[in-house]
């Protein structure tokens, strides 16, 4: 078998010869370079060594004694290390070269692309040119790794990472190992792919998956909404062209909340004597 068939995998090779810049390893037919900056051990002639094979920037097969948890067909979590618009995002799998998740495998809208520090559940794939790329976990893969939730977890707080995103909702893999779904009505803003989110379980399905809400509980939501309104007012020196008869779309765009939530929070602030309305505007009292 060609060494190219082991790209993205771990293989045991033998030291064929040493050079100033590293070691040449062999499977008996082909040689591959193990550069000295890819190992922290001294190797002897004919010694067997386990290495991970990947392709360098020129597409050449190269070796490292750093064995990553993520290999072709093996899934694990990895952190996004860089974002390159027009190309994709780079992921740190633990070796010197970061792996690319190509733009074609990312959401259409770059606003929900992962950012540096986000976490993805991935494996590696080799394309037809023997280049190594990141592959995102699909629903069947997550289902195979997931734990089934029991009814007792209903209304419990959870956190997890988004592994798939769409306009209708977001899918997450929770820290407990549950596969979860966040309907678009249960989030104020669409989270990024790979973003850590915190919410609560609002339903446990027969198949052991869960539905999650990122919205605060009612009293918490009222506090948050009221603070958001006051924050906008303070930014505008105590006056804003929004009131309880403003259009729902305008409220959603400015405050990231429904008109019903806006009216409840505004009503509370008026009842507490903190704000008042006049001719389509809302003002902070005393300003």
What does this protein structure show overall?
With 287 residues, the protein is an alpha+beta fold. The protein has four domains: 3-64, OB fold (Dihydrolipoamide Acetyltransferase, E2P); 76-136, Beta Barrel (OB fold (Dihydrolipoamide Acetyltransferase, E2P)), CATH 2.40.50.140; 146-213, Nucleic acid-binding proteins (OB fold (Dihydrolipoamide Acetyltransferase, E2P), Beta Barrel), CATH 2.40.50.140; 218-284, Arc Repressor Mutant, subunit A (Orthogonal Bundle). Helix content is 16%, strand content 37%. It has helices spanning 139-145, 218-235, 248-255, 259-271, and strands at 10-19, 22-26, 31-35, 48-55, 61-64, 76-84, 88-92, 99-102, 119-126, 132-136, 157-166, 169-174, 179-183, 196-204, 210-213, 239-240, 275-278, 281-284. Helix 2 (218-235) packs across helix 4. The N and C termini lie far apart (79 Å). The model has no long low-confidence stretch (mean pLDDT 92). InterPro entries: CvfB_fam, CvfB_S1_2nd, CvfB_S1_3rd, CvfB_S1_st, CvfB_WH, NA-bd_OB-fold, S1_domain, WH-like_DNA-bd_sf. It holds the Pfam family CvfB_2nd. It comes from Bacillus benzoevorans. Belongs to the CvfB family. Residues 155-215 form the S1 motif domain.
């Amino acid at each position: 078998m060609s060494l190219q068939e082991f790209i993205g995998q771990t293989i045991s090779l033998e030291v064929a010869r040493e050079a100033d810049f590293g070691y040449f390893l062999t499977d008996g037919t082909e040689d591959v370079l193990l550069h000295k900056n890819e190992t922290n051990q001294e190797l002897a002639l004919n010694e067997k060594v386990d290495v991970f094979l990947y392709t360098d920037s020129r597409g050449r097969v190269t070796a490292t004694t750093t064995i990553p948890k993520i290999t072709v067909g093996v899934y694990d979590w990895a952190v996004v290390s860089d974002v390159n618009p027009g190309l994709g995002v780079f992921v740190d799998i633990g070796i010197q070269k970061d792996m690319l998740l190509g733009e074609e495998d990312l959401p259409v809208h770059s606003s929900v692309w992962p950012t540096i520090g986000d976490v993805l559940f991935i494996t590696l794939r080799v394309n037809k040119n023997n280049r190594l790329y990141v592959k995102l976990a699909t629903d069947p893969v997550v289902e195979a790794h997931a734990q089934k939730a029991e009814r007792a977890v209903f209304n419990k707080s959870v956190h997890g990472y988004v592994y798939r995103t769409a306009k209708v909702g977001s899918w997450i893999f929770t820290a407990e190992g549950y596969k979860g779904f966040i309907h678009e009505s249960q989030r104020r803003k669409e989270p990024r792919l790979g973003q850590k989110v915190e919410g609560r379980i609002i339903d446990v399905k027969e198949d052991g998956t869960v539905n999650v809400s990122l919205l605060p509980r009612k009293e918490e939501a009222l506090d948050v909404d009221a603070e958001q309104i006051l924050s906008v007012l303070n930014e505008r020196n105590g006056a804003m062209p929004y009131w309880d008869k403003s259009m729902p779309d305008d409220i959603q765009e400015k405050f990231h909340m429904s008109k019903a939530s806006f009216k409840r929070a505004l009503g509370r602030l008026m009842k507490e004597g903190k704000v008042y309305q006049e001719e389509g505007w809302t003002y902070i009292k005393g300003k």
